[in-house]
Amino acid sequence: MCGLDAALRVVGGKWKPLILFFLGDGPKRYGALKRCVRGVSDKMLIQQLKELEAHHIVLRTDHQEIPPRVDYALTPFGESLVGALRPLCMWGEANTETIAEALDETGKA
Amino acid sequence: MCGLDAALRVVGGKWKPLILFFLGDGPKRYGALKRCVRGVSDKMLIQQLKELEAHHIVLRTDHQEIPPRVDYALTPFGESLVGALRPLCMWGEANTETIAEALDETGKA
């Protein structure tokens, strides 16, 4: 498995990079995460979080409180992955206009 | 559009990062690229290349020769994107075993 292929196995797809990006700011409860990752369905977000948890990238903690408090946080492994994603995020920020123009041209904005 | 969201609009999905990664070594003809990106179908590779071309990330050049010679190369914009993907590639390389174990556990190897 080449490096990028391996990385994409655990972070590929449309939603996982965004979920990790927002968890990069610190632990979040499900509702807060759902509001951050605009457009994701409950079914998709739950499935992606389960996979990220199974791959030891995200840790789900049930704080055993009443009312119940459950949150999701990056593991150290997850934090190293977010670090590797940051340059892509900065590239996107630096090129947002060029990307928006390209997407407009292809009607994919 | 946040930076990562913007970047994922043009490089999201399973195949584009791999296509860009292999074009990072230099221009390639279609057949060579198909052999590099294992498992991709002709239909998918053609579609992804068309999108990458429309987004000014890849340049398709028909060298107007007999027999025909057509190749695909990164534009400067594409090269800057591949640069931003490299850390993710290095992260994957550094963590290939951990990833393989995690994928084994979830039967997704």
Automatic annotation (TrEMBL), chains A, B:
Protein name: Helix-turn-helix transcriptional regulator
Keyword Plastid: no
Database matches in Pfam families: HxlR
UniProt keyword annotations, A-Z: DNA-binding, Transcription, Transcription regulation
TM spans (from-to): none
Alphabetical list of PANTHER family matching this protein: TRANSCRIPTIONAL REGULATOR, TRANSCRIPTIONAL REGULATOR, MARR FAMILY
Superkingdom of source: Bacteria
Ranges of residues in domain HTH hxlR-type: 2-100
Native organism taxonomy: Bacteria, Pseudomonadati, Pseudomonadota, Alphaproteobacteria, Hyphomicrobiales
